[in-house]
Amino acid sequence: MALKITEECINCDVCEPACPNEAISQGIDYYVIDPMKCTECVGHFDTPQCVEVCPVECIPSDPDHPETHEQLMKKFLRLTTEHA
Question: Do residues 39 and 83 make contact, with C-beta atoms less than 8 angstroms apart?
Fold first, then answer.
């Protein structure tokens, strides 16, 4: 499933450049993740890079966007094909 950034975000700016899909951007109050672009780094890394670098652990799974590993891989393939 896609990830989301919670209101505990301190706007430290480390998650945005860590995202290989450019799914993270500055929101009104804190960073946000576009669920249409988030693959939890499937296809790029073994673990979500935003979660790895987040100092306040404010990036859980988004229950509003459940996806299987297979679905995340299909999204990764679609995203990387569009940018090729």
Answer: no
